[in-house]
Write a sequence for this structure.
């Protein structure tokens, strides 16, 4: 598997339980640094749950618990001495339906930055510009930074949410179906963006869209009923899957 | 295909017509009661209603003059009630929606308490006000500070009693407003490394502020018209001056109406005053409810 790049995220026999049912069974995989890793699989297969375990977003749901290991840079994210807030600053997240905060474009980007520290106006200005440039939005919004972010189009809003996540300079970017609410042109822009961002960030992407996984990811994992069926280089997984279930899924025989 | 309705029996049609007739009559009756009431108040009290009526003190044992101290007293009362009640109600709602585990016994007990509170007759709140606020807290403060101004009915204890009475309204509407804040917004904030508390103060509450306002206004509307609850805790039937601080007694529109109609030496002479006072009281609650509706519709549009 992913041996040719340094390992960033590693799961070992990771199980995840909601209050009444187990959602992930014995997940073991390694995710390489500064690559794009995609998770595919039918709805309810656990791929989003797995993604949301990485920044412990699932903590918000009552009654969940985990066992096994899920490690980032060798540190178990579920161990007692991990501070969730610090973890989430290192592991950014972009959601399927990322509504910007009902604030200005500028304030959306500075939100995460100004939470815990005083940052000078000039430093903020600079971060806003670089974040917007990184998310390929700068040229479109530079003249209306102080206008409400809700006036942006859907695709622009999603790129703003990426800029917002990038602004706090995380190491990992989790993307939970970031394009499922976007039109093909906006999707294209976001995919292009993912390609550029992977030089700086380790990207983990959940997608319903197999073509998208094929286009943007270096590694792909196929989830089914809470288990990781197969994990491999994207090209290998799509051209010569080793598991029957994977083949059935990618050839559209079910799901 | 047979599309004509000949196969439906005449009897069934008759039942249908009858049902519509009954429903319509009920609707018209409700409208009629409201309009009739308003009409009679306006017809009988409209001429008495004037700027002088609103701004003058009552004269001659409440049989002449205006309602200024009652109007001012009611305003002070609801203002103080809002200041006391809304923060507590908001805090409770924040706890219930943001912190409590939804099925924990504590959250369930709080919800049960809120629902029970909503169903308690208001006179019971009045008695609670006497027992808890005046006799327990008031006397307690007096003996602690060596004063004698807290152990009696006052604007303060009336406001506190009303604050308790309107708590369910505040809690329920603020909870609703907080729940209306999309989960995505909270998650986005948390995912950017905000703590729960930062998320609440920076994202959730600013987005729910219209709902919190609506809740406050509804509570004020409920509190402004309430008489039974303040009967024993500080309202007075006549006052030469406005209360100068919160430990004094005050006049109140609803109670004034009760006094005019039952405690006056000449009830017939006060009839126009009663009607006009009713109009003012109705107008006040109507205005408050209207502003709540307007704010709410603005909230929906967003």
């Amino acid at each position: 598997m992913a041996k040719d790049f340094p390992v960033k995220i590693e799961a070992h026999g990771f199980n995840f339980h909601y209050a009444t049912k187990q959602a992930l069974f014995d997940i073991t995989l390694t995710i390489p640094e500064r690559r794009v890793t995609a998770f595919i699989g039918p709805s309810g297969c656990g791929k989003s749950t797995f993604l949301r375990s990485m920044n412990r977003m699932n903590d918000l749901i009552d009654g969940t618990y985990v066992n096994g290991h899920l490690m980032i840079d060798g540190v178990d994210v579920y161990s007692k001495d991990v501070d969730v807030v610090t973890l989430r600053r290192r592991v950014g997240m972009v959601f399927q339906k990322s509504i910007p905060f009902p604030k200005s474009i500028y304030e959306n980007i500075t939100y995460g930055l100004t939470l815990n520290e005083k940052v000078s106006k000039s430093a903020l200005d600079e971060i806003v510009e670089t974040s917007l440039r990184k998310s390929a939005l700068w040229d479109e919004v530079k003249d209306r930074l102080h206008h409400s972010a809700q006036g942006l189009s859907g695709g622009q809003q999603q790129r703003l949410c990426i800029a917002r996540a990038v602004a706090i300079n995380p190491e990992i970017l989790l993307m939970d179906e970031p394009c499922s609410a976007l039109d093909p042109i906006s999707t294209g822009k976001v995919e292009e963006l993912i390609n550029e961002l992977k030089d700086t960030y380790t990207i983990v992407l959940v997608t319903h869209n197999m073509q998208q996984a094929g286009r943007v990811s270096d590694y792909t994992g196929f989830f089914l009923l809470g288990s990781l069926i197969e994990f491999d280089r994207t090209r290998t997984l799509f051209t010569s899957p080793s598991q029957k279930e994977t083949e059935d899924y990618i050839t559209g025989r079910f799901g | 295909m047979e599309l004509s309705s000949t196969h439906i029996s005449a009897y069934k049609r008759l039942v249908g017509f009858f049902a519509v007739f009954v429903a319509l009559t009920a609707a018209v009756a409700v409208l009629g009661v409201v309009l009739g009431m308003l009409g009679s108040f306006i017809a009988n009290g409209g001429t008495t209603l004037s700027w002088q009526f609103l701004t003058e003190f009552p004269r001659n044992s409440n049989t002449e003059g205006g309602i200024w101290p009652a109007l001012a007293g009611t305003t002070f009362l609801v203002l103080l009630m809002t200041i006391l009640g809304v923060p507590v109600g908001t805090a409770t709602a924040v706890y219930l929606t943001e912190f409590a585990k939804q099925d924990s016994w504590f959250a369930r007990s709080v919800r049960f308490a809120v629902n029970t509170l909503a169903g308690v007759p208001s006179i019971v709140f009045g008695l609670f006000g006497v027992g808890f606020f005046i006799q327990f807290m008031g006397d307690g403060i007096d003996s602690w500070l060596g004063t004698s101004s807290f152990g009696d009915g006052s604007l303060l204890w009336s406001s506190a009693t009303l604050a308790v009475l309107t708590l369910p309204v505040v809690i329920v509407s603020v909870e609703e407003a907080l729940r209306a804040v999309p989960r995505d917004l909270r998650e986005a904030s948390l995912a950017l490394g905000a703590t729960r508390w930062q998320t609440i103060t920076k994202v959730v509450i600013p987005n729910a502020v219209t709902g919190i306002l609506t809740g406050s206004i509804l509570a004020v509307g409920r509190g402004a018209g309430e008489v039974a609850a303040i009967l024993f805790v500080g309202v007075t039937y006549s006052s030469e001056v406005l209360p100068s601080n919160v430990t004094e007694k005050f006049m109140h529109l609803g109670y004034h109406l009760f006094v005019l109609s039952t405690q006056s030496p000449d009830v017939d002479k006060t009839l126009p005053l009663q009607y006009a006072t009713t109009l003012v009281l109705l107008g006040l609650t109507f205005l408050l409810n209207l502003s709540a509706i307007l704010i709410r519709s603005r909230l929906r549009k967003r």
Observations:
- The first helix of chain B runs from residue 10 to 45.
- The radius of gyration of chain B is 25 Å.
- The mean pLDDT of chain B is 87.
